Amino acid sequence: MGYFITFEGVEGSGKSTQIRFLADELISRNLATTLTREPGGCPIADQIRAILLDADNSAMSAMSELMLYAAARAQHVNEVVAPALADGNIVLCDRFCDATVAYQSYGRGLDRAVIDTLNKHACSGISPDLTILIDCDPQVGLARARRRIELSSGPREERFELETVAFHQRVRSGYNNLAKTEPQRFVIIDGADTIENIASKIRDAVLSRIPEGIRAIR
Ligand code: TMP
């Protein structure tokens, strides 16, 4: 069995940059590494992602949003995460179940029990061994995320960037509450630090935790 690491944080926290740095570091150490993300990570889940993040879909109900995240996750776990872990890889996933609790429960106010049940069914028994939470002031993160969207030539994935700062504050406190309930799984990194310092803290946290037996790159 491999080792499952997830990255979480509010919009513009820098997690996608940092997860790529970590993937490069692990690959340079000849450790078999699968880098993936949610929502998405495989063709069917990527199509669900496009629906979820399209700003034109402002009429989407909170429950339908939740179920689309769960559907994307069920497909992604089955097609990508579970096989890669079974093959002895380190799997790095940009967002996972904690995002659903932070965004759909703390952010949208949906019933936590419903979310936990859907997550349980979508994950078929798989849960992260380690979660890196990059804690960031939503005002700072949102400004960064909106700048990135303006510069991007791809699809405008901005449905969540258009939410209020108060929504993103609830998401942030949701993440911090989750981290408090599972301190052994979460490592909280201060997103206000420099990119280099954040990368080195993440590298140290990961290298001190990954178990023996991760397979080498073939
Ligand atoms: P990304 O910007 O990190 O790619 O994530 C896409 C958006 O989807 C982001 O705004 C957070 C949101 N999201 C949820 O609301 N629930 C979830 O379960 C996941 C995985 C992401």
Layout of strands and helices, then pairs:
Blueprint: E1 3-9, H1 15-28, E2 33-37, H2 43-53, H3 62-86, E3 90-94, H4 97-107, H5 112-123, E4 130-135, H6 138-151, H7 165-181, E5 186-190, H8 195-207
Helix pairs in contact: 1-8, 2-3, 3-5, 4-5, 4-7
The structure holds thymidine-5'-phosphate.
Thymidine-5'-phosphate is lined by residues 11, 38-39, 53, 69, 94-95, 99-100, 103-104, 160.
Could you characterize the architecture of this molecule?
- This protein is an alpha/beta fold.
- It contains 8 helices and 5 strands.
- The protein has a 5-stranded parallel sheet, with helices on both faces.
- Helix 2 runs antiparallel to helix 3 (62-86), helix 4 packs antiparallel against helix 5 (112-123) and helix 4 (97-107) crosses helix 7.
- The longest helix is centred in the middle third of the chain and has 25 residues, at 62-86.
- The protein is globular.
- The model has no long low-confidence stretch (mean pLDDT 96).
- Thymidine-5'-phosphate (TMP) binds at residues 11, 38-39, 53, 69, 94-95, 99-100, 103-104, 160.
